[in-house]
Each structure stands twice: as C-alpha cells, then as structure tokens.
Specification:
By secondary structure, this protein is of the alpha+beta class. Helix content is 29%, strand content 26%. It has a 6-stranded antiparallel β-barrel with strand order 13-16-15-14-17-18. The radius of gyration is 26 Å and the shape is elongated.
Length: 417
C-alpha cells in the first residue's frame, strides 16, 4: 500500500517508521526544511522523550481524554518507547521525576536515530512541501493535493501537530484537513504556559524564584451561589518551584497548573501561595513568636530576615496592610495573625495565560469521539488517520505529551489494512 504521512514531527516520523516496517511504501510530506523542528527545541533542547513511570501512571498525567489513550498506551507503552530508541542506538538516562532524556542531552540525537531508520526503510521524505488539501471521494481517502500535483495514496496519516511554537512552522492545517473530512474541532488553546497576573507587586519581584512553596488555585463555585460573597472551590494544589516575571508568574508548578484552568478563564481565578507549606499555622505562629522575641526592639520590616527572602519582606508587609515601621514589642496578637495569614495565603489574581509563542503544547484539536481509539482511523472517512498533538489530547510536562505522540503514531502506523 501507498501511505502519505502529512507532517514530519515526532508522531509523523514514528507513524512512518511503523507503516514502512509493515511493508508499505511511505511518503512523508513536511513543510519545513528539516524533520523534527519542534522536537529539536523540546525540553529546552534536551528532549524529554518519555517518562519511566508505571504504565498505569501515564493516564493520570493526561489532562484531556485520558481514556481515549487506553489502547495506544498499552499497545506502545513508555517502556516499549525506551526499548525502541535503544534498539535504534540511542543511549538514554532517567532523571528526577522519571523524566527520560538522551544520554547526550541533545534532542538532535533523538531526531538522528529516527531519520536513520526512515532512511533504512527507504521512506520518501519530501521537505519544503506543503499539502493543500485531502482528496476524499465517497467517504474514502485517496490522496492529497500538493499545489496542482495530485499525490495518490491508499492511506493518509495526519500528524501536523498543534499550533504552539509558531516559529517552528506550526499552524492549523491539520484542523482544516480534519474539518474538510467532516470532523469537529475542539477549540485550540495554549497550554503548559505561564500566567499573567493583575497585581503590580508581582512585577516588582521579577526574577525572584521561590522553592519549596505551596500553590493552590481557586475558582468561583457556581453550584454554591451566595448573596453575601462568592464561594470558591480548589481546582489545583501542588508543592514545588515558581518564578515571578515581568508579566506575572511562571516556573514548573505554574506551567503544570495552566493545564487545569482553561475552562475558568474569564472567571475570578485566585492563585494562593503558601510561603511556608512545611509549617502548620500553629507551628508558624510559634516560629514568628521566637523571631519576634529575638528582634523585639526592632521594627517589623527588619524582623523577618530569618523567615522570608529579603525581597519578599516588603511585599508581604504591604500585602498584610501592617505598618512595617511598627516596633515588634507593639505588635498585637491580631496583627500577628494577619501576618501569618499573609505568609500562608499570599493571593494573586490570574488575568490570563501567555500566548502561543510560550505554550509548550496545544489544548484542543480533532474531536477524539470521531476517531477509533483502537486504530486512530477516522470514523468519518475510511483510510484517514490522525496521530499526535493534532488530536484533542494533552498531558502534563515530564515526557507525557511525547509519549502520547509516539503511542498514537505507533497505533496509526500499525493499523493500516
């Protein structure tokens, strides 16, 4: 059979390899001047290509449509991905959080072994070539149009990716192909992306990194309306690192949190930072009392050096509404409680997410209800398959999104009959 793979990224190369290993004549059509352009910058150029967790744990790290991934993950698991790359000659290592990287720390090595295998399998790679439309007749895929050229095929696999990182050539062509075939598209939105914040003091802390802090996100609970005040529910809770920026907040925890808040954008999204999550309120109060005893003759603003980062002290005092010039000996029990509350619950208001240039992945894409999860074939058009980020499946950082790409591509490449 003749197979056309549209897109030469991670899922495109993987789908082409397995389709070719099954004896098919395979053509990859890629608009860029080289394969794997987005893969090259993945993981800051190191390429965290999967995660070495238990296969069952993969599902918990898929944020959208994890059940759809059942056949894919069990057909081509994370361990099988590691074995596959090892067989191709890639040495890898496992780091904190079970993240798997090439031993060299170079994403180019991942691309090189895939390209070498494509060459071995005699896959026809057409670079700087753009597919204009699919050829579909009577509900069956028959090929693609490249300008005025008709490229016939028995099967088509769409692996055009999402729209994040537009500088790599990412665009919405895959969604247009899917719509032309009768598919519905779940609106594409940037995900795994930093937050924009309302409060100005946040920008005053630009460049300050926080470690070992707690981060919770609260949104209005529309099921619990109140005439007095809005009731809130917690939609995210984590512990780790974050960073203040010129526009708001970023860092590992924030990036992870962004995957969970899209449906609340436009509502009052409250981000709460616990600067001392290891201490209960009682323990923190005791700690503050000890420090106050030590600095009882000083002003409040000069008495928190042992407890907080120097850059945070004026921010916390201003946030609390307390007088930083007040002597410790004059601080009341109620004022101490307010200080404690400010340290344990430093609130910020999210005004939005950063754009596509900073998004690691795309949330949204081809509606998976219209895709056969056991083969990746379209339920609308026979002989048309979809794999990778073009689908409405997104996961957390840590190698999980690339695992989605490899697994869905494997299934598509192995299901061509």
């Amino acid at each position: 059979m003749k197979v056309v793979v549209i897109g030469g990224g991670a899922s495109g190369m993987m789908a082409a390899i397995w389709a070719a290993r099954n004896g098919n004549k395979v053509i990859i059509v890629e608009q860029n001047e080289k394969l794997g352009k987005k893969l090259f910058i993945t993981g800051k150029g190191r390429c965290n290509f999967t995660n070495a967790c238990d296969v069952e744990d993969l599902f918990g790290n898929v944020v959208t449509n994890s059940k759809f991934m059942y056949s894919s993950f069990y057909s081509f698991s994370n361990q099988q991905v590691m074995d596959f790359f090892e067989e191709l000659g890639l040495r890898y290592k496992i780091e904190r959080g079970n993240r798997v990287f090439p031993a060299s720390d170079h994403s180019s090595d991942v691309i090189k072994v895939l390209e070498k295998e494509l060459k071995r399998l005699d896959v026809d790679i057409r670079l700087k070539t753009r597919v204009d439309k699919l050829i579909i007749e009577d509900g069956v895929a028959h090929g693609v149009m490249i300008g005025h050229e008709k490229l016939t095929a028995d099967k088509i696999i769409v692996t055009t990716g999402g729209v994040s990182y537009p500088r790599t050539g990412a665009n919405d062509s895959g969604y247009r192909f899917a719509e032309s075939a009768g598919h519905s598209i779940i609106k594409a939105q940037p995900s795994l992306v930093p937050f924009e914040i309302k409060e100005d003091w946040c920008r005053d802390l630009m460049g300050v990194a926080l470690k070992n802090v707690g981060l919770s996100i609260f949104v209005p609970d529309k099921k619990k309306k109140s005439t007095d005040n809005t009731k809130y529910k917690k939609v995210f809770d984590d512990f780790g690192e974050m960073l203040f920026t010129h526009f708001g907040v970023s860092g590992p925890m924030v990036i992870k949190a962004s995957a969970y808040i899209h449906k609340y954008l436009g509502d009052d999204i409250v981000l709460s930072i616990d600067l001392k999550p290891a201490l209960s309120e009682k323990q923190l109060d005791e700690r503050i009392l000890r420090d106050f005893e030590l600095f009882k003759n000083k002003q409040l603003s000069n008495s928190l050096d042992k407890l907080l980062l120097k850059s945070l002290i004026p921010v916390v005092i201003e946030y609390s509404g307390l007088d930083g010039n007040k002597k410790i000996s004059e601080i009341t029990k109620e004022e101490r409680r307010i200080l404690l509350e400010s340290i344990k619950n430093l609130k910020l208001h999210v005004t939005g997410l950063r754009g596509w240039d900073e998004a690691i992945i795309t949330k949204g894409g081809v509606n998976v209800k219209e895709i056969d999860p056991g083969t990746m074939e379209s339920k609308k058009v026979k002989g048309l398959y979809f794999a990778g980020e073009v689908l409405d499946v997104d996961a957390l950082t840590g190698g999980f999104n690339l695992q989605v790409a490899w697994s869905t591509a494997y299934l598509a490449g192995n299901s061509l009959e």
